[in-house]
Structure prediction request, 297 residues.
Amino acid sequence: MKILPILLCTASSSLAQSVFTTDFNGTLPAEITPGSALAEGVQEFAGLGTGSNLFSGNFLRSSTANLVKLELTNLPAHSTASIGFLLAAIDSLDGTGSYPSGDYFHIKLDGVTIFRESLANAVQSQVQSYIPAPGAQLARWQDLGFSGPGSFYRDSAYNFALEPGLRAIPHSSSTLTIEWIIEGAGVQSLGDESWAMDNLSVSLDSPAIPQNLRWANRHVSYPVGTTPYFTGLIHGAAPLANATLQASTDLGITDAWQNLVTLPANANGSVSYTDVPDPSAAGSPRNFYRVVTEEGP
Ligand SMILES: [Ca+2]
Ligand SMILES: [Ca+2]
Ligand SMILES: [Ca+2]
Prediction:
């Protein structure tokens, strides 16, 4: 048996979980109160998006001045919420100013404004106060269907899943309400200007559970050849949380931390690793081990 000096450390990570998603292609989910908004075909918005998050099938199209609401209940414990959707800015929205301008896309979370900026499509001299995050603008002043083509009735599209202001919003209540509306001095009829959303999702992070990980004992042995075998016991993980033993020859600098095994902690937050082989370390003059735990189920 040979024993080498090893470094042992711990880290923790939290996992996002999706609690609501809809592509608006089927029956409208009961959690959504659409007002006068209706599911309609996406017309020329089809295929716009980011990666696999694309407009397709139907989206939920609303006139200006109409409120669309999502209400979620019985949410699991969490500390932040993230909202994502694709926004279609349809026809002659007029940006900042006085009528027919004054078309503000307004989002509230639990009654608190988290986004309010104007949208402009009709004339390029109009002022749109919304400045898309990098990658969020999918189309601008293009004919994507509905009224038009051309004249004041060009369209724009944005991926609001990429807006940092809608990600990791502090939130811990078991209920969550989101409201969307285009409001302001410039609201007009559906055939003149409108908006739609597709691929709506809401995700929550896991709660941060304090953990105090510590090693009770550990050693590395070489029972046969040059493959090291790791044995160790940790305490202080979140009860029943997954705990992954990882290895690297250089703390992950050039040799990425490799998962050796994932085991669940017991109800007391203890995890025992017994003779876990680390074949990728064969021949290395030294090796490092750490445990990465999740926040618990
Ligand atoms: Ca769709
Ligand atoms: Ca149009
Ligand atoms: Ca308007």
In short: Residues 1-5, 8-13 have pLDDT under 50 and may be disordered. The chain has two domains: 8-14+209-294, 31-205. Residues 31-205 form a domain with the Jelly Rolls fold (CATH 2.60.120).
